[in-house]
Design goal:
Two copies of one chain form a homodimer.
Chain A: E1 4-9, E2 13-19, E3 25-32, H1 38-57, E4 66-71, E5 74-76, E6 81-84, E7 91-93, H2 95-103, E8 108-112, H3 113-124, E9 133-138, E10 142-148, E11 151-153, H4 184-187, H5 189-206, H6 222-228, H7 232-256, E12 260-264, H8 272-285, E13 296-299, H9 306-312
Parallel strand pairs in A: 1-4, 4-8, 9-12, 12-13
Antiparallel strand pairs in A: 1-2, 2-3, 5-6, 6-7, 9-10, 10-11
């Protein structure tokens, strides 16, 4: 049995997992991300984490086939460097090379976290068996990962796949990236929470009844739960949210016509009912509908392990 | 010297060219497209055109290395069939196979015309030397062609690359595809003409002076010419048009980060001054600007020969 390590490098925690050939995590551990002591400290902590995972499972670090790091920001999979991340103290930092030196594992890879998650879903998750898929992550932002011909696609400079930063409403809501009207500003969990809060304020101002007025804390579930309880205002929020989400998904289909789109991130916890509500709206808008085979839309399955498994399988070439 | 034939199959004319290894058209001819006598008649006319091109140049048809057909609609490059076209009487029609039978040339390929043009620019035009480019055609509609790893990318069903049908204005202007707010509805030559006409009407209604009021016929050049003549209303149209065009181009960069974007179609006749006016707007909106190498934006160079040359080079594998 061959084992690989996947590292989910986040701004708060570094999570690591030892993954077997069946994509099962056989050992798991994490440490807080120390962002104040320079990038070398992060390399040290990743390397120690790798040692610990192997110890816990009873494997020598030298027996690990590869280490793959899923990093926020722009990760250059050609050179193994993190070009830039707003959450980590890294700028053109050769993380793969340094982790390789420190661990003695010769195959160390780095990839943007959303891309790694998409690759994880393609290898071991909801898009398994397809060589051509796109993953959308609906969380704090809207992340994108593109798999073409069994490889992550991110452009000549590794900065592509920013599918959340497609403008869908010209001069619309302000996005964190500086543009106005990005898909992310309408379809992230954050955007859903904002829409829910705005509707609650509107209800208050108009003296309109809604179960959402009693929500102790507004989350991405508040409007969906309210809708399921028969609440009209809740349904209005969900309808608006689904409308923008479907608009962006139809864009993705018109651009890529991937075999499968997988949806991950917090909002995807709504499960298959989310896909059922989305599909008719997407089908009505997509190009060439009815004339060609249709893109499947599925909920991603790797959930919180997407970064670890996505990282671990970076060392895998499905064509070989 | 190896010769290939490129066929630009349009709804009005079938244009063909014999192309040498330096991508020079050494013979050229065309016939009207007969759409009323079924697809077999089109196969016959393409085959006769191929014979004529070879005769004109003094080559045997059997000496031709490949024939490539640039077709409107959804062309399946895996099977060689035109799946569907709204301008041609074809539905799941095995055009490559039939042209091969008729001509005796064993290598016959078919590709969507915008994709073929993008491949032509990548092999022999403004994106030459790059393995990763995107072409945008600003004509009656907005066409898109995506080149990844020296291959046309059009998704698992060959219907992708419909970059004109990315919604950039949710619930915006009606698009011919059925959606509202597509990039095509703002950035095609048709859209530019519509915006110009609307501004002329506005000037008339408000008694505002503009040289555009004297235009004998409104074209895609009217507003640009007026702007160059110092006309304020003309400048307003151009500014609005450039704003939408830049919005869509920044989307393309955020998605693909291609090495090069080439711009073709009627509007591209504005030339390098169009690129100069666009670039600052695009740079201001693109993701990761300043942190990574930047996508070049260039005017396409093959012009009206894009279909012929793009078709001819379909038989070419740059990796070999």
């Amino acid at each position: 049995m061959k084992y690989r390590i996947g590292i989910d490098l986040g701004g708060t925690n570094i999570a690591g997992g030892l993954v077997d050939e069946n994509f099962k995590i056989v050992a798991k551990a994490s440490v807080p991300t120390v962002v104040t002591e320079g990038p070398e400290k992060i390399v040290e902590d990743i390397s120690s984490l790798c040692s610990k995972l192997c110890e816990d499972f009873g494997l020598k670090l030298s027996e690990v086939a590869s280490i793959g790091i899923a990093s926020p920001g722009i990760a250059n999979h050609f050179t193994g460097a993190v070009e830039y991340s707003c959450n980590l103290p890294m700028r053109k930092f050769p993380i793969s090379e340094l982790v390789s030196e420190k661990t003695g594992v010769s195959h160390v890879f780095v990839e943007n976290d959303a891309n790694a998650a998409a690759w994880g879903e393609a290898v071991a998750g909801a898009a398994k068996g397809s060589s051509n898929s796109v993953m959308i992550t609906l969380g704090t932002g809207v992340g994108g990962g593109i798999i073409i011909d069994n490889k992550v696609y991110s452009g000549f400079n590794c900065a592509g796949g920013e599918l959340g930063h497609i403008v869908i409403e010209h001069n619309g809501r302000q996005c964190g990236c500086g543009r106005k009207g990005c898909w992310e500003a309408y379809s992230s969990a954050t955007a859903l929470i904002n829409m829910t809060k705005e509707k609650i304020e509107e209800c208050k101002a108009n003296g309109r009844a809604s179960v959402m007025l009693d929500a102790p804390k507004v989350s991405g579930r508040t409007a969906f739960d309210a809708m399921r309880a028969g609440d009209e205002a809740g349904k209005e929020v969900v309808d608006m949210y689904l409308d923008y989400l479907a608009c962006g998904l139809a864009n993705i289909i018109n651009i890529f016509q991937p075999e499968i789109i997988t949806i991950g991130g917090g909002v995807s916890n709504e499960g298959d009912s989310l896909v059922e509500a989305l599909l008719p709206r997407v089908r009505a808008e997509q190009y060439g509908g009815g004339l060609v085979d249709l893109t499947e839309v599925k909920i991603a399955t790797l959930k919180n392990d997407a970064g670890i498994i996505g990282g671990a399988v970076l060392g895998l070439n499905l064509d070989k």
